Amino acid sequence: MTTESPRWFKSSYSENGGQCVEVATNLVASRGVVPVRDSKRADGPELGFTAAAFSAFVDGLKVV
Known about the structure:
Layout: E1 21-23, H1 28-31, E2 33-38, E3 46-50, H2 51-63
Antiparallel strand pairs: 1-2, 2-3
C-alpha cells in the first residue's frame, strides 16, 4: 500500500478564471487512478478515473 499524496495541478490554460479542475497524475503508477477535484473546493470530494478513462476524456477535448 502506498501513502503517496496527490500532487495537484491546474492547466496552464486556466488563467485565474476560478472555474477550474485540478488533477493529480502522479498517482497513476502507484494507485492506477487520476484523481480530479474542483479547484475552488480543495477540501471537497475527488473523483477517481482510470488512466485509460482520463486519457480518453483528454483526447476528446482535443477534438473540440
